[in-house]
Amino acid sequence: MTLKHLEEYRDPEIARTLIDSIQNRSRKNIRLMEVCGTHTVSIFRHGIRDVLPDTISLLSGPGCPVCVTAQGEIDAFIALSRVEGMIITTFGDLIRVPGTKSSLQEERATGRDIRMVYSAMDALEVAQANPDRQVVFLGVGFETTAPTIAGTLTMAKTMGLQNFSVISAHKLAPPALDALMQIEGVELDGFIMPGHVSVIIGLKAYGGLFATYRVPCAVAGFEPTDILKAVAMLVEQIESEKPAVENAYPRAVTQEGNVKAQKIMETVFKVEDANWRGLGVIPLSGLGLSDAFAEFDAMRRFQPVVPEAPEPKGCGCGEILTGRKTPPECALYKKVCTPVNPIGPCMVSSEGTCAAYYRFHS
Fold it and tell me: What is the C-alpha to C-alpha distance for residues 146 and 165, in angstroms, rounded to an integer?
């Protein structure tokens, strides 16, 4: 992509043309959900809600990987951190997410060895540097991060590392969207599809969802004009009553996606049921380690005891992730739950809807 192309996606005149097009075309009251947490932050940062007509409501969906990680998974991470001699490696957002009785941040304050890393490869290097200790990487994310973790595990297997393992709490986006469409009380007229995920899985991955529900879809990038272009596409689909799966991010997303990334994921992972915060157990919506890589499964290796984990009392994170509530409609928002004292993960993660509302919404 040339600098000229990049400038086009940041051109205020192009943005103004798209805004005018949306305002002139939009007549029906519609509810659009941005699935990606990065989109949520970008929409707030650039004031996109403020330039859209009153006919369009934007809702935030289950696109923040930390936010959709189930309470029981958080408790499992904490339980593993208490194993004698253990080193836990994780992305920073997970540190502060409250578990049922503790958090990784609180465990680190008591002396547990919990380290923030920027990639799974960083965690592998920690294992190489500490051959006498067990190192676990907390694998949280969507199809975006799964290929890099798969590559790291392939390298660990080649190296014969005995002290490195992973908890795979990865989630798959298309099954979650299908589950959303089946929840009573969820009313959506279209999806702004995630850009990063779509780079990996391609437009074809949404074929089943579209065939079943005929719901308008448009994949978006992360510049303001990318998002406005996707909204304009969705408005046109809805007003003309011609739903489709369209691509507003062609410079990065293709029909087939990243085939090499898909192949390494298929080798290292297997598709299995997964528990989503706010959505419950969704069949075939998660990635566990395949039998060929079972030796690197931290849950199998250490078998932590994790009691049943209820959601935090009064926390509306689950309903917010499914578009049934906005953060101000949660009884805890800004009263008990703040970035300094988060009750649920939607207020912790930088991509969380509650955190975005708190930071950008007046």
Answer: 15
Give Cβ neighbours of residue 178 (< 8 Å, ≥ 6 apart): 208, 209, 212, 213, 282
Q: Residue 4 above 70 pLDDT?
A: no
Q: For 141-200, write each residue's pLDDT tens digit.
A: 999 999 999 999 999 999 999 999 999 999 999 999 999 999 988 889 999 999 999 999
Residue 154: burial class (beta carbons within 10 Å; 0-12, 13-18, 19+): middle
Indicate the residue type of 35.
V
Q: What does pTM read for this prediction?
A: 0.91
Q: Dihedrals φ, ψ of 186, to 5°?
A: -90, 115
pLDDT per position as a tens digit, 231-277: 999 999 999 999 999 999 999 999 999 999 999 999 999 999 999 98
Distance CA(146)–CA(152), nearest Å, equals 10
Residue 264 in any domain: the answer is: yes
Domain edge (last residue) among 223, 245, 267: 245
- Phi, psi (rounded to 5 degrees) for 323: 75, 10
Please provide residue 55's backbone torsions phi and psi, each rounded to the nearest 5 degrees: -70, -20
Burial class of residue 287 in the structure, from the number of CB atoms within 10 Å of its CB (0-12 exposed, 13-18 middle, 19+ buried): buried
Q: For residues 205 and 254, is the Cβ–Cβ distance under 8 A?
A: no
Report the CATH number that the domain containing residue 284 is assigned in CATH: 3.40.50.11740
Q: Is residue 135 part of a domain?
A: yes
- 94-104 tens-digit pLDDT: 999 999 999 99
CATH at residue 59? 3.40.50.11750
Domain that holds residue 334: 317-360
In a domain, 16, yes or no: no
CB of 81 closer than 8 Å to CB of 337? no
**1 pLDDT exceeds 80?**
no
